[in-house]
Every structure is written in structure tokens, then in C-alpha cells.
Design a protein that fits this description.
By secondary structure, the protein is an all-beta fold. Helix content is 0%, strand content 57%. Strands 2, 4, 5, 6, 9, 10 and 11 form a seven-stranded mixed beta sheet that branches. Strands 1-3-8-7 form a four-stranded antiparallel beta sheet, with no helix packed on it.
Length: 115
């Protein structure tokens, strides 16, 4: 069983930056793919960014060039640096991890970008 704990959300003005963190507890020594999705009410969950243990990264189209994902395998922690934030980036950001073929989700952290 893996527990994911997110932190770093909040309120920021458009053009600003935020850094999200997600620490994983439990599971195998190094989790497989970790990353971030985001959810807005009444819309589908959207891929933000994911990263494999060897550092291969995939970004959603709407955040490419503005967001950067990284991870510390020793700490089983994934980070999301969000720059040049826009009001449309406002959402609940959910941490995601894959471990031994099972998917896990965090409870989410709120990000609000004011115009």
C-alpha cells in the first residue's frame, strides 16, 4: 500500500510560480512512474506531467515549456515546478504513482491563479 502526500499548493497571481511536492510512503523501494494530474469540477482529469525512475518526462500540451517535473528516487518524492502560471491552471493537483502494477492517488492540493 502506498500513501501519497502532496504539499505546496496555494494562491498566486498570474505570471507567478509555485512548487508542488509529493512524498510517497510505503510500497517498494523505488516507485515506478510518478507524476501529476489536475482536476477541475465537471471536467476530465488532465495529465500535467509524469516521470519514470530513469528520468524520462512526459508533459501535457497545456503546460509544456512552463512546468518542470523532477523526482528524488532516494526519497520517493516527486516535484512540480510551475512557472508563468495562468488562471486556467487553477485546479486540484493530484499526485499519482504506479507501484507493482497498481495505481495510487493523493488527496490533492489546490492551486488557484488569480488574473
Amino acid at each position: 500500500q502506498v500513501r501519497l502526500v502532496e504539499s505546496g499548493g496555494g494562491l498566486v497571481q498570474a505570471g507567478g510560480s509555485l512548487r508542488l511536492s509529493c512524498a510517497a510512503f510505503g510500497g517498494t523501494s523505488t516507485l515506478s512512474t510518478m507524476g501529476w494530474f489536475r482536476q477541475v469540477p465537471d471536467e476530465q482529469r488532465e495529465l500535467v506531467a509524469i516521470i519514470t525512475p530513469d528520468g524520462t518526462k512526459t508533459y501535457g500540451d497545456s503546460v509544456t515549456g512552463r512546468f518542470t517535473i523532477s523526482r528524488d528516487n532516494a526519497k520517493n518524492t516527486v516535484y512540480l515546478q510551475m512557472d508563468s502560471l495562468k488562471p486556467e491552471d487553477s485546479a486540484v493537483y493530484l499526485c499519482h504513482a504506479l507501484d507493482s502494477g497498481l495505481y495510487y492517488w493523493g488527496r490533492g492540493t489546490h492551486v488557484t491563479v488569480s488574473s
